[in-house]
Amino acid sequence: LSQSGSSFHVLDQAQFAKEVLPKYFKHNNMASFVRQLNMYGFRKVVHIEQGGLVKPERDDTEFQHPFFLRGQEQLLDNIKRKVTSVSGLKGEEVRVRQDSVAQPKKSLKIKK
């Protein structure tokens, strides 16, 4: 946890992937872990002095979420996996997409 209590750090990604991830996940892949964090709304913190372009001198990756705060355990219930669904599409778009899926492809005639 950071000093401010509003983020957490992974100081050594290789060691974290090797020792920590297998204890809690079915993998030891750091990229998969970061993808999971992103699905729950966590974002990588990029410091202004780094500008996002310069690779940091040490292997320190920081992640934050608005509801991940020290001493605010009641906020953790608000951290939910983002759901992607067609509910955001307009009814007409859904019908068009369903129609295009329902149409059978024309069969190809094979010449002998």
Automatic annotation (TrEMBL):
Record InterPro entries: HSF_DNA-bd (IPR000232), WH-like_DNA-bd_sf (IPR036388), WH_DNA-bd_sf (IPR036390)
Record keywords: Activator, DNA-binding, Nucleus, Stress response, Transcription, Transcription regulation
Signal peptide start-end: none
Superkingdom field: Eukaryota
Alphabetized Gene3D superfamilies for the sequence: Winged helix-like DNA-binding domain superfamily/Winged helix DNA-binding domain
Pfam families: HSF_DNA-bind (PF00447)
Subcellular location: Nucleus
Annotated Gene Ontology cellular component terms: chromatin; cytoplasm; nucleus
Xref: SUPFAM superfamilies: Winged helix' DNA-binding domain
Main location group: nucleus
Molecular functions (GO terms): core promoter sequence-specific DNA binding; DNA-binding transcription factor activity; protein homodimerization activity
Residues forming coiled coils: none
Domain HSF-type DNA-binding residue range list: 21-45
UniProt similarity note: Belongs to the HSF family.
Protein's recorded name: HSF1 protein
